[in-house]
Amino acid sequence: MERHPRKKFVRAKEETGLLRIESRDIALLQDLSSYRFLNTVQIAALYNRGTRNLQRRLHDLYHSGYIDRPPQQNLVGLMNHHIVYGLGIKGAEVLFADAERDEKIRLVKQNRETTFPYIAHALMISQFRASLTLALREHPAKPKIEKWLQGYELKDALALRGTNPELVPDAFFTIGEGENALDFFLEADRSTMPRERVLDKLKIYWKWHREKSQEKILGINNFRVLTITKSEERAENLRKIAKNADDKKIGSNMYLFLSETQYSLAKPQAVLSPVWASAKDERHGILE
To answer: How far separated are the first and last CA of the chain, in Å rounded?
Structure first.
């Protein structure tokens, strides 16, 4: 593919030639559709690719319209290796057909207007999900994330009989299958939500647990609520708040908290370790 001098967030107007889409490109497009946003470092970790070759391929996919670079990130001056990517219109056309394709293209256009605070929140979720994916690859039993829902997909799944759900978690995911499946709701806390609102949300989860409404909604028998935070101090504060979320106000192991400073793409195994603090003053691993 012929290369041209280009600006970072402006696609070339001249003809760029044909780009042959490979299987690894399809896998990336599928991940961008599912994650919504991934930065270069996260993509490199998930695909175990060198930075220089990866940046070159992302460059070509972007200027050919298969992936997108949300322009709002330009306002915060991200480094080249931290550029954020989402699915592009051509990428949606490759992955989807008919009505589903039209809806995905609508979401692609919407992503371009997303403000950076929301992108940062989505990247926090992506960082956890990528770390969890890498940790599961190294686990002796090789369990997999069998289901992951977030955003509009999760909202639609929770909307029974056309009504708006009382709570839309940041994500829902399942590890494993059948009787061994483990189900989780995920909250990504960026220290912007008042404590009272956090407690209200945790009480709704307890209501779902008590009434077993999750069986009707998502077809699951039990679940845990994982909250990731920006700091250990925030994780501890929310853990204490969670003591008041259950009916007896004694704390429940259903609520687990972890600072994102305790795991990374380089050392993702921490997300599976018994480092999650529960509202019951205990430490757990999420596969226990």
So the answer is: 50
Tokens of 115: 């403000």
pLDDT in tens, 184-236: 999 999 999 999 999 999 999 999 999 998 887 888 889 999 999 999 999 99
Nearest to 133 by CA among 284, 262, 272: 272
Closest CA to 154 of 187, 116, 199: 187
DSSP letter for 4, please.
-
> What's the rounded Cα separation, in Å, for the pair 274 and 84?
31
pTM given for the model: 0.92
The CA distance from 73 to 65, in Å, is: 18
**What CATH number belongs to 23-114?**
1.10.10
For residues 166 and 142, what is the distance between their CA atoms, to the nearest angstrom? Answer: 35
138 alpha-carbon distance from chain centroid: 20
